[in-house]
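re: ur msg from earlier - yeah i can do the coenzyme A complex, just paste it... oh wait u already did. ok heres what im feeding in:
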Amino acid sequence: MDTKQIHLEKVNWDNFEAIINLHVNKEQRDFVASNKDSLVHACIRMIDEGKRVFPFGIYLDKKPVGFIMVTYDVGEDDGEEPSAEWFLRNSYFIWRFMIDKRYQGNGYGREAMRLVLEFIRTFPAGAAKYCWLSYEPTNERAKKLYQSFGFRELPEHYEDGEEMPAILEL
Ligand SMILES: CC(C)(COP(=O)(O)OP(=O)(O)OC[C@H]1O[C@@H](n2cnc3c(N)ncnc32)[C@H](O)[C@@H]1OP(=O)(O)O)[C@@H](O)C(=O)NCCC(=O)NCCS
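and the outut:
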């Protein structure tokens, strides 16, 4: 299939139910929260923490096939305690990313990642030097995909039982 038909659409009143109905395989459930939970988490982050969040449906033409969600943090500049994790400050974070189990392995995830990085590089919430994300160390498919876009692992910030963080210079 032609991945050029892949595009991102903001989550809205018309599409949120279809997006909530997208799911990964049972074996992949430890890799990413459900889309329903992710949208709740987005609301809490906006309402409680006043942060910017950008949730998108990933579409193949008119069909929703996945979900990707970005957020932005200015860290200590907004009154928070300085963090040892420098990449958390003034950076974009690809917080959630999934392609529905029916549509994986067709190049849609790769195209969605390309598009979301293009979006991030418009700096929609403010300036940033880095984009970061994290993944379960056993998630080989995600790891390879991110590495192919230039994400570099930060093993010095990895803690047992947590996800591996990786950054990309914007
Ligand atoms: C990770 C994920 C988003 C990738 O999306 P996708 O549409 O399946 O991936 P693509 O078809 O674009 O392929 C991307 C790369 O994954 C790898 N890949 C794809 N299908 C694969 C398969 N069946 N087995 C192993 N690797 C595979 C390939 O290396 C491919 O790279 P290439 O373009 O150089 O061939 C998707 O598989 C997914 O939702 N997984 C479950 C949730 C998850 O892990 N999310 C990420 C959390 S950090």
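cool cool. Residues 31 and 138 are 9 Å apart (CA to CA). ping me if u need the other ligands too
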